[in-house]
Design goal:
Elements (H helix, E strand, L loop, with lengths): L1 H8 L1 H20 L5 H27 L7 H22 L7 H32 L2 H20 L5 H9 L1
């Protein structure tokens, strides 16, 4: 039983689960049949909560492991900033589904998809191989706590995204 609980908290698995959710939300934001504004609101909250939790609880800890590339961790932080900027640009478009909205959505998809792919191939593969299970579980618990704290604070609001982007 304890092993199952630990598996549920594995930081790598939790991050990958969020990545798949983001990809699903991209599909909904692209679909004219879906609630595109609702999908964007969910995506915005998830992207900010996820990125802030990674940066505050995960990235620093992963740098301590020799098989996790420090430069890739730094690059991940830079890519969060790019994705957050693209998110803000989309949130600031007044008409969902307009040409401008669609263009900015594609810029967001491109920035975030690139980051997800790179993070999975470099940082997360390194973490899966180099970081012991119990440490990944501890990091997973910390990641979830910070992620939930961010979500509870309405982290996806345009005002908060603006504050995150402007630092």
């Amino acid at each position: 039983m304890a092993a199952d609980k630990q598996q549920d908290q594995d930081v790598v698995a939790l991050i990958l689960e969020d990545h798949r959710t983001m990809e699903e939300l991209f599909r909904r934001m692209r679909s004219v049949e879906a609630d595109r504004a609702g999908a964007l609101a969910k995506f915005s909250a998830l992207l900010i909560a996820h990125g802030e939790a990674e940066e505050s609880e995960v990235y620093g800890a992963l740098k301590r492991f020799k098989d996790v590339d420090d430069d890739e961790v730094e690059h991940g932080t830079e890519e969060h900033a790019e994705g957050n900027g693209a998110l803000l640009a989309l949130l600031e478009v007044s008409e969902v589904g307009s040409d401008e909205w669609d263009e900015r959505l594609e810029e967001l998809v491109k920035a975030v998809t690139h980051h997800l792919d790179e993070e999975e191939r470099t940082i997360l593969n390194g973490a899966r191989e180099a970081v012991p299970d119990e440490r990944r579980a501890e990091l997973g618990a910390a990641f979830l706590r910070e992620r939930e704290r961010q979500l509870a604070a309405d982290c996806g609001s345009v005002e908060n995204v603006r504050a995150v982007v402007r630092g």
